[in-house]
Amino acid sequence: MQRSSDPGPADTVTFPGCPTPVAPLGVGTWAWGDSRTWGMGSYDTALDETTIGDAWRSSLGAGVGLFDTAEVYGSGESERILGRLLSADPSGRDRMVIATKFWPAPWRWNVVPALRQALEASLGRLQIPTVDLYQIHGPISLRSASAMAEALATVVDAGLVRAVGVSNYSVREMTRIHSELRRRGVPLASNQIELSLLRTRPLSSGLIDACRDLGVVPIAYSPIGQGRLTGKYSASNPPPGRRNFSAHPMEAVDRVVAVAREIGDAHDGRTPAQVALRWIIDKGAVPIPGAKNERQAVDNAGALGWSLDAAEVAALDRVALAGTDSIANRVWQHG
Question: Which of 43, 73, 134, 169 is catalytic?
Answer without folding.
Answer: 73
